Amino acid sequence: MHNNTEKHIAYVALFAAFIAALGLVPKLTLGFGVPITAQTLGIMLCGTILGAKRGAQAVLLFLLLVAIGLPLLAGGNGGLGVFFSVSGGFLLSWPIAAFIIGWIVEKCHTGSLALVAGLASVIGGIIVVYIFGIVGMSIVLKKNLWECAIMASIFLPGDIIKAIIAGLLTSSIAKARPSSVLSRQQPPQL
């Protein structure tokens, strides 16, 4: 049991670092201030590989490090202010998105893992993230939800590609190292 706990803690820390590393991929900031980054792929993979609880924990650890000022977001941003920026709603959605993605992958054992993980990434990593992000944009930009939804739609093609990548990567890892895909194992007893 003790060894399993250490393994799970290591995975949570590793995936928090993975999200940070994805922040090194150059971002593309749009005219309304929300950047296109690779970090949402990390959020999707936290859920598909680590599962609901550990995936959310990895994202919360990452966001805690951002909140204390580490420049881990794409473009080297960090600090509490980012949570009140035009991107704040998106950031706040990330742990919930990882949890929902992981929960779906944990519960749905029918069909191919690539398809389940891809669809879970669409539900949690796109729909949930967009709901929070659009509301956050609406508050910060003082625009209505419809205007913000139209602005956010520019992210959709890239996010669909990330969901497909998350599904395929999760499936490949499961084939190569089944024990590494914790979302397909017994949930942790925390």
From TrEMBL:
Highest taxon in the source lineage: Bacteria
Compartments, as annotated in UniProt: Cell membrane
Recorded topology in the membrane: Multi-pass membrane protein
Primary localization: membrane
Keyword Zinc-finger listed: no
Bilayer-crossing regions: 9-26, 32-51, 58-76, 82-105, 112-137, 149-169
Keywords assigned by UniProt, alphabetized: Cell membrane, Membrane, Transmembrane, Transmembrane helix, Transport
Entry's family note: Belongs to the BioY family.
Protein name from the UniProt record: Biotin transporter
